[in-house]
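> forwarded from #structure-qc
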């Protein structure tokens, strides 16, 4: 049985690798930022346990998180075309995947269960939300409290860090064109689903609130679980629109940061989580989280 599974996975991985290696005019060569690790965190490899045979691998994720953190902010990967089959990414991440859907604020670690994946943030491509974004492990980096990846289709370096109840995403535009992101309140990991998802931009033009009810492997067993977000941008978008559960923000700035608090209690609690934990600069929060891991 194990040999059969190996053969099936090898076929799927081989097919994806072929598509991922085709020249579509994307430049995968990108120099990633230097690691900002400490005496002990320099030895940690967050990619351990993120690949292997489904049902028989670690099901871990390189997502950014603080020690004992509720928020695990990181990539949700997929096969070409946005497919995530054969239970390969129950943590949201599978190393053999060469594409990703975006970055969500929560995931389970080390389980075969698929849950969370809420409020996924996806960089736009030519002003639109893509089905999937190609990436290379050569332009990807992670250490305790930090994850980053360069996405050539959107020309964005995407960096993430987190506190116990909030997450920060910093985007650095490598092109001369405008860029943007969408935040999807209806997102979830793989085979789950979401109900009552909504997003609302506040009158200040920079902050927003959202909520959703998650129905995953565990949360679906007790009629779903409500989750809330309060987020704000450090720059004012030149364009921002909300369509039910999807918020789209576009920026002319070469660099911008999204900060967001997450709560399973209320939007007010999500706002309080951000203001008490994640309201400093990206670098300040990152330094503090790395120090906690040390």
């Amino acid at each position: 049985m194990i040999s059969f599974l190996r053969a099936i996975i090898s076929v799927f991985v081989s097919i994806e690798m072929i598509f991922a290696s085709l020249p579509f005019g994307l430049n995968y060569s990108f120099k990633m930022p230097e690691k900002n690790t400490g005496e002990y965190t320099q030895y940690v490899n967050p990619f351990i346990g993120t690949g292997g045979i489904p049902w028989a691998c670690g099901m871990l994720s390189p997502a950014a998180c603080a020690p004992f953190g509720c928020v695990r902010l990181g990539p949700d990967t997929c096969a070409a075309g946005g497919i995530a089959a054969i239970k390969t990414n129950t943590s949201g991440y599978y190393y053999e995947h060469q594409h990703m859907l975006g970055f969500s604020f929560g995931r389970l670690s080390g389980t075969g269960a698929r849950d969370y994946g809420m409020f996924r943030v996806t960089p736009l491509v030519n002003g639109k939300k893509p089905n999937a974004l190609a990436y290379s492990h050569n332009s990807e980096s992670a250490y305790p409290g930090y994850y980053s990846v360069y996405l050539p289709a959107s020309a964005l370096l995407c960096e993430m860090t987190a506190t116990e109840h909030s997450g920060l995403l910093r985007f650095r535009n490598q092109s001369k064109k405008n860029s943007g992101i969408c935040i999807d309140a209806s997102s979830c990991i793989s085979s789950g689903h979401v109900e009552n998802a909504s997003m609302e931009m506040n009158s200040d033009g920079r902050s927003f609130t959202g909520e959703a009810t998650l129905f995953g492997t565990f949360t679906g067993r007790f009629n779903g679980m409500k989750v809330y977000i309060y987020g704000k941008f450090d720059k004012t978008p030149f364009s921002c629109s909300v369509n039910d559960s999807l918020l789209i923000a576009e920026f002319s700035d070469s660099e911008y940061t999204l900060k967001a608090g997450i709560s399973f209690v209320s939007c007010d609690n999500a706002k309080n989580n951000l203001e008490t934990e994640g309201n400093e600069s990206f670098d300040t929060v990152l330094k503090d989280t790395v120090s906690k891991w040390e």
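QC bot note: Residues 16-25 have pLDDT under 50 and may be disordered. The chain has three helices and 15 strands.
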